[in-house]
Amino acid sequence: MTPVSPYFHPTTTVLIDDNLKTLRQLVQSLGLRGTPYSIFNNPHEGLDFINKDQYRETFVDKLSTSDESMEGDSLSFNPRHLVPELKSADRFGQISVLVVDYEMPGIKGLDLCEKIENPFIKKILLTGVADENIAVEAFNKGMIDRYVRKHDPEFPMLLQQIVPQVRHKYFQELFHFPLQTLRKRPESTALVDPVFITEFNRLVTKHHIQEYYLVEGTGSFLMIGADKKLYSLITLDEGLIDAYLNSKSRDTLTPEKIKSLEKRELMPCYYNPFRAPYLETDNLKNFLRKPTVLKGHQKTFYCVFGQGYIDITAQDITTWHHI
Q1: Does the CA dihedral 110-112-117-118 come out positive or negative?
Q2: Which CATH code of 3.40.50.2300, 2.30.29.30, 3.40.50.720, 1.10.10.10 fits the domain covering 7-177?
Q3: Residues 287-303: pLDDT tens digits?
Q4: Residues 267, 301: Cα–Cα separation, whole Å
Q5: Maximum CA pair distance of the chain?
Q6: Alpha-carbon span 244 to 58, nearest angstrom
Q7: What is the pLDDT of residues 154-207, one digit of tens each?
Q8: Residue 48: which of 101, 102, 95, 105 has the closest Cα?
Protein backbone atom coordinates (compact mmCIF):
# COMPACT_ATOMS: atom_id res chain seq x y z
CA MET A 1 0.00 0.00 0.00
CA THR A 2 1.31 3.46 -0.92
CA PRO A 3 2.50 5.41 2.16
CA VAL A 4 1.07 8.83 2.99
CA SER A 5 3.21 11.62 1.54
CA PRO A 6 4.35 14.03 4.25
CA TYR A 7 3.27 17.01 2.15
CA PHE A 8 0.91 17.69 -0.71
CA HIS A 9 -0.09 21.04 -2.19
CA PRO A 10 -1.07 22.59 -5.54
CA THR A 11 1.79 22.50 -8.03
CA THR A 12 2.20 23.78 -11.56
CA THR A 13 1.10 21.82 -14.61
CA VAL A 14 2.87 22.75 -17.86
CA LEU A 15 1.18 22.10 -21.21
CA ILE A 16 3.17 22.32 -24.46
CA ASP A 17 1.66 22.05 -27.94
CA ASP A 18 2.34 24.10 -31.05
CA ASN A 19 -1.44 24.54 -31.52
CA LEU A 20 -2.74 27.28 -29.23
CA LYS A 21 -6.36 26.22 -29.75
CA THR A 22 -5.50 22.70 -28.57
CA LEU A 23 -3.78 24.12 -25.48
CA ARG A 24 -6.87 26.12 -24.55
CA GLN A 25 -9.04 23.05 -25.01
CA LEU A 26 -6.69 21.08 -22.73
CA VAL A 27 -6.91 23.73 -20.03
CA GLN A 28 -10.70 23.59 -20.27
CA SER A 29 -11.00 19.79 -20.30
CA LEU A 30 -8.55 19.37 -17.39
CA GLY A 31 -10.28 22.03 -15.29
CA LEU A 32 -6.98 23.79 -14.67
CA ARG A 33 -8.30 27.33 -14.31
CA GLY A 34 -8.53 26.95 -10.54
CA THR A 35 -4.98 25.58 -10.25
CA PRO A 36 -1.46 26.72 -11.16
CA TYR A 37 -0.60 26.05 -14.81
CA SER A 38 1.40 27.45 -17.73
CA ILE A 39 0.87 26.88 -21.45
CA PHE A 40 3.37 27.20 -24.30
CA ASN A 41 2.81 26.92 -28.04
CA ASN A 42 6.56 27.41 -28.49
CA PRO A 43 8.17 24.20 -27.22
CA HIS A 44 11.60 25.77 -26.75
CA GLU A 45 10.15 28.49 -24.52
CA GLY A 46 8.31 25.83 -22.57
CA LEU A 47 11.50 23.83 -22.07
CA ASP A 48 13.37 26.93 -20.87
CA PHE A 49 10.57 27.65 -18.40
CA ILE A 50 10.69 24.10 -17.01
CA ASN A 51 14.47 24.06 -16.61
CA LYS A 52 14.40 27.33 -14.66
CA ASP A 53 12.38 25.63 -11.91
CA GLN A 54 14.79 25.35 -9.00
CA TYR A 55 13.55 21.98 -7.82
CA ARG A 56 16.54 21.47 -5.56
CA GLU A 57 15.34 24.40 -3.45
CA THR A 58 11.73 23.35 -3.24
CA PHE A 59 9.38 23.78 -0.34
CA VAL A 60 9.64 20.04 0.33
CA ASP A 61 13.44 20.07 0.37
CA LYS A 62 13.53 22.88 2.92
CA LEU A 63 11.22 21.08 5.31
CA SER A 64 12.81 17.66 4.98
CA THR A 65 16.37 18.84 5.50
CA SER A 66 17.70 17.20 8.61
CA ASP A 67 18.28 19.43 11.63
CA GLU A 68 20.80 18.32 14.23
CA SER A 69 18.76 19.97 16.96
CA MET A 70 15.79 17.71 16.21
CA GLU A 71 15.47 14.15 17.40
CA GLY A 72 13.93 11.34 15.39
CA ASP A 73 14.19 9.74 11.99
CA SER A 74 14.85 11.11 8.52
CA LEU A 75 11.41 12.72 8.35
CA SER A 76 12.08 14.90 11.39
CA PHE A 77 12.08 18.61 10.67
CA ASN A 78 11.99 21.86 12.54
CA PRO A 79 8.39 23.17 12.67
CA ARG A 80 9.78 26.69 12.59
CA HIS A 81 10.56 26.08 8.91
CA LEU A 82 6.94 25.24 8.17
CA VAL A 83 5.29 28.51 9.14
CA PRO A 84 7.30 30.87 6.88
CA GLU A 85 6.96 28.46 3.97
CA LEU A 86 3.18 28.36 4.39
CA LYS A 87 3.15 32.15 4.05
CA SER A 88 4.98 31.97 0.73
CA ALA A 89 3.33 31.29 -2.61
CA ASP A 90 6.59 29.95 -4.02
CA ARG A 91 5.61 26.36 -3.31
CA PHE A 92 2.88 26.55 -5.94
CA GLY A 93 5.51 27.29 -8.60
CA GLN A 94 6.94 23.78 -8.33
CA ILE A 95 6.41 22.04 -11.66
CA SER A 96 5.07 18.55 -11.07
CA VAL A 97 3.44 17.55 -14.37
CA LEU A 98 4.21 18.12 -18.05
CA VAL A 99 1.64 17.38 -20.76
CA VAL A 100 3.32 17.58 -24.17
CA ASP A 101 2.36 16.75 -27.73
CA TYR A 102 4.59 14.30 -29.57
CA GLU A 103 4.51 15.90 -33.02
CA MET A 104 5.71 19.53 -32.97
CA PRO A 105 7.82 21.54 -35.43
CA GLY A 106 11.43 22.04 -34.40
CA ILE A 107 11.46 19.44 -31.62
CA LYS A 108 9.42 16.35 -30.96
CA GLY A 109 7.75 15.92 -27.58
CA LEU A 110 9.91 12.93 -26.71
CA ASP A 111 13.11 14.83 -27.46
CA LEU A 112 11.85 17.69 -25.28
CA CYS A 113 11.21 15.26 -22.41
CA GLU A 114 14.81 14.04 -22.61
CA LYS A 115 16.10 17.61 -22.21
CA ILE A 116 14.24 18.23 -18.94
CA GLU A 117 16.73 18.53 -16.08
CA ASN A 118 14.33 17.90 -13.21
CA PRO A 119 14.07 14.11 -12.78
CA PHE A 120 10.96 14.34 -10.61
CA ILE A 121 8.63 15.97 -13.16
CA LYS A 122 5.99 13.56 -14.41
CA LYS A 123 5.77 13.49 -18.22
CA ILE A 124 2.58 12.72 -20.16
CA LEU A 125 2.97 12.37 -23.92
CA LEU A 126 0.04 13.04 -26.27
CA THR A 127 0.25 10.80 -29.32
CA GLY A 128 -1.37 10.31 -32.69
CA VAL A 129 -1.99 6.97 -34.38
CA ALA A 130 1.42 6.96 -36.07
CA ASP A 131 3.25 7.77 -32.82
CA GLU A 132 1.72 5.08 -30.63
CA ASN A 133 4.45 2.44 -30.98
CA ILE A 134 7.12 5.05 -30.23
CA ALA A 135 5.19 6.11 -27.10
CA VAL A 136 4.91 2.53 -25.88
CA GLU A 137 8.65 2.04 -26.27
CA ALA A 138 9.39 5.34 -24.49
CA PHE A 139 7.09 4.36 -21.61
CA ASN A 140 8.74 0.95 -21.27
CA LYS A 141 12.16 2.63 -21.12
CA GLY A 142 10.99 5.07 -18.41
CA MET A 143 11.41 8.13 -20.65
CA ILE A 144 7.80 9.16 -20.00
CA ASP A 145 5.37 8.32 -17.21
CA ARG A 146 2.21 7.95 -19.26
CA TYR A 147 0.95 8.47 -22.78
CA VAL A 148 -2.56 9.26 -23.99
CA ARG A 149 -3.89 8.69 -27.50
CA LYS A 150 -5.42 11.91 -28.80
CA HIS A 151 -7.72 9.90 -31.09
CA ASP A 152 -9.17 7.95 -28.14
CA PRO A 153 -12.86 8.89 -27.79
CA GLU A 154 -12.34 9.06 -24.01
CA PHE A 155 -9.23 11.23 -24.32
CA PRO A 156 -10.42 14.15 -22.08
CA MET A 157 -11.64 11.81 -19.33
CA LEU A 158 -8.44 9.74 -19.42
CA LEU A 159 -6.30 12.86 -19.12
CA GLN A 160 -8.43 14.12 -16.22
CA GLN A 161 -7.74 10.86 -14.37
CA ILE A 162 -4.05 10.61 -15.18
CA VAL A 163 -2.87 14.11 -14.23
CA PRO A 164 -3.90 13.85 -10.54
CA GLN A 165 -2.47 10.32 -10.37
CA VAL A 166 0.97 11.32 -11.59
CA ARG A 167 0.94 14.46 -9.44
CA HIS A 168 0.59 12.29 -6.34
CA LYS A 169 3.35 10.07 -7.68
CA TYR A 170 5.54 13.18 -7.97
CA PHE A 171 5.25 13.80 -4.23
CA GLN A 172 5.81 10.13 -3.48
CA GLU A 173 9.07 10.15 -5.41
CA LEU A 174 10.27 13.35 -3.74
CA PHE A 175 10.05 11.44 -0.46
CA HIS A 176 11.16 8.07 -1.80
CA PHE A 177 14.22 7.61 0.40
CA PRO A 178 12.80 8.76 3.76
CA LEU A 179 9.65 6.74 3.13
CA GLN A 180 11.75 3.67 2.33
CA THR A 181 13.55 4.21 5.64
CA LEU A 182 10.23 4.37 7.46
CA ARG A 183 9.06 1.15 5.82
CA LYS A 184 11.92 -0.55 7.66
CA ARG A 185 10.87 1.06 10.96
CA PRO A 186 7.07 1.13 10.80
CA GLU A 187 6.76 1.45 14.56
CA SER A 188 8.04 5.05 14.36
CA THR A 189 5.17 6.55 12.35
CA ALA A 190 1.65 5.97 11.09
CA LEU A 191 2.51 7.09 7.55
CA VAL A 192 3.36 3.56 6.39
CA ASP A 193 0.68 1.69 8.33
CA PRO A 194 -2.08 0.34 6.02
CA VAL A 195 -4.85 0.99 8.55
CA PHE A 196 -3.80 4.62 8.96
CA ILE A 197 -3.31 5.05 5.19
CA THR A 198 -6.87 3.89 4.56
CA GLU A 199 -8.29 6.28 7.18
CA PHE A 200 -6.14 9.17 5.94
CA ASN A 201 -7.30 8.72 2.33
CA ARG A 202 -10.91 8.50 3.49
CA LEU A 203 -10.63 11.83 5.31
CA VAL A 204 -8.92 13.51 2.35
CA THR A 205 -11.69 12.37 0.00
CA LYS A 206 -14.60 13.04 2.34
CA HIS A 207 -13.51 16.55 3.29
CA HIS A 208 -12.12 17.54 -0.13
CA ILE A 209 -8.65 18.21 1.25
CA GLN A 210 -6.44 19.99 -1.31
CA GLU A 211 -3.31 20.59 0.76
CA TYR A 212 -1.77 18.78 3.70
CA TYR A 213 1.43 19.20 5.70
CA LEU A 214 3.00 16.90 8.24
CA VAL A 215 3.54 18.78 11.51
CA GLU A 216 4.72 15.86 13.64
CA GLY A 217 6.36 12.61 12.57
CA THR A 218 3.90 10.20 14.20
CA GLY A 219 1.24 11.35 11.73
CA SER A 220 -0.30 14.71 12.69
CA PHE A 221 -1.21 16.98 9.76
CA LEU A 222 -2.35 20.49 9.01
CA MET A 223 -4.89 20.26 6.19
CA ILE A 224 -6.57 22.79 3.92
CA GLY A 225 -9.89 21.99 2.27
CA ALA A 226 -11.41 23.11 -1.00
CA ASP A 227 -13.39 25.57 1.14
CA LYS A 228 -10.02 27.06 2.25
CA LYS A 229 -10.79 26.16 5.87
CA LEU A 230 -8.02 24.79 8.07
CA TYR A 231 -8.37 21.28 9.44
CA SER A 232 -6.21 19.22 11.76
CA LEU A 233 -5.52 15.52 11.98
CA ILE A 234 -3.89 14.83 15.34
CA THR A 235 -2.35 11.37 15.61
CA LEU A 236 -0.89 10.05 18.85
CA ASP A 237 0.47 6.72 19.98
CA GLU A 238 0.60 5.23 23.46
CA GLY A 239 3.89 6.95 24.25
CA LEU A 240 2.67 10.45 23.35
CA ILE A 241 -0.50 10.10 25.42
CA ASP A 242 1.59 8.86 28.35
CA ALA A 243 3.82 11.91 27.90
CA TYR A 244 0.79 14.13 28.55
CA LEU A 245 -0.09 12.09 31.60
CA ASN A 246 3.43 12.55 32.96
CA SER A 247 3.57 16.30 32.25
CA LYS A 248 2.53 19.32 34.30
CA SER A 249 -0.56 19.58 32.10
CA ARG A 250 -1.97 16.65 34.08
CA ASP A 251 -2.37 18.98 37.09
CA THR A 252 -5.06 20.93 35.23
CA LEU A 253 -7.28 17.86 34.81
CA THR A 254 -9.92 16.36 37.06
CA PRO A 255 -9.44 12.75 38.26
CA GLU A 256 -12.23 11.71 35.89
CA LYS A 257 -10.45 13.23 32.88
CA ILE A 258 -7.18 11.63 33.90
CA LYS A 259 -8.87 8.24 34.10
CA SER A 260 -10.42 8.79 30.66
CA LEU A 261 -6.96 9.52 29.27
CA GLU A 262 -5.53 6.44 30.92
CA LYS A 263 -8.30 4.31 29.39
CA ARG A 264 -7.79 6.09 26.02
CA GLU A 265 -11.44 7.13 26.02
CA LEU A 266 -10.19 10.67 25.42
CA MET A 267 -6.98 12.00 23.90
CA PRO A 268 -5.32 15.44 23.84
CA CYS A 269 -5.72 17.37 20.58
CA TYR A 270 -3.31 20.28 20.56
CA TYR A 271 -0.26 21.31 18.57
CA ASN A 272 1.61 24.62 18.48
CA PRO A 273 4.11 24.92 15.61
CA PHE A 274 5.43 28.20 17.01
CA ARG A 275 6.62 26.72 20.31
CA ALA A 276 7.34 23.31 21.80
CA PRO A 277 4.37 21.15 20.76
CA TYR A 278 1.83 19.23 22.77
CA LEU A 279 2.76 19.78 26.39
CA GLU A 280 2.88 23.56 26.68
CA THR A 281 -0.76 24.24 27.36
CA ASP A 282 -2.28 25.05 30.72
CA ASN A 283 -5.84 24.41 29.52
CA LEU A 284 -5.52 20.84 28.32
CA LYS A 285 -9.07 20.15 29.48
CA ASN A 286 -10.32 22.19 26.51
CA PHE A 287 -8.49 19.96 24.03
CA LEU A 288 -9.69 16.49 25.02
CA ARG A 289 -11.68 14.57 22.43
CA LYS A 290 -12.84 11.01 21.83
CA PRO A 291 -10.39 9.43 19.39
CA THR A 292 -10.78 7.16 16.44
CA VAL A 293 -8.76 4.10 17.46
CA LEU A 294 -6.71 2.58 14.65
CA LYS A 295 -5.27 -0.82 15.49
CA GLY A 296 -2.36 -0.82 13.08
CA HIS A 297 -0.07 -3.63 12.06
CA GLN A 298 2.71 -2.61 14.47
CA LYS A 299 0.96 -0.44 17.07
CA THR A 300 -2.25 1.38 17.93
CA PHE A 301 -2.79 4.97 16.84
CA TYR A 302 -5.33 7.44 18.21
CA CYS A 303 -6.65 10.06 15.80
CA VAL A 304 -8.90 13.11 15.96
CA PHE A 305 -9.88 15.13 12.90
CA GLY A 306 -11.41 18.60 13.14
CA GLN A 307 -10.74 22.32 13.30
CA GLY A 308 -8.84 24.39 15.82
CA TYR A 309 -6.44 21.77 17.18
CA ILE A 310 -3.31 23.28 15.60
CA ASP A 311 -2.45 26.73 16.85
CA ILE A 312 -2.29 28.45 13.47
CA THR A 313 -4.72 30.74 11.64
CA ALA A 314 -5.68 31.42 8.02
CA GLN A 315 -3.72 34.69 8.27
CA ASP A 316 -0.54 32.62 8.72
CA ILE A 317 -1.05 30.82 5.41
CA THR A 318 -1.11 31.77 1.74
CA THR A 319 -3.32 29.37 -0.21
CA TRP A 320 -3.59 29.18 -3.97
CA HIS A 321 -7.08 30.68 -3.69
CA HIS A 322 -5.59 33.93 -2.33
CA ILE A 323 -3.17 34.54 -5.20
Answers
A1: negative
A2: 3.40.50.2300
A3: 999 999 999 988 999 99
A4: 11
A5: 76
A6: 35
A7: 998 999 999 999 999 999 988 887 777 777 777 778 999 999 999 999 999 999
A8: 95
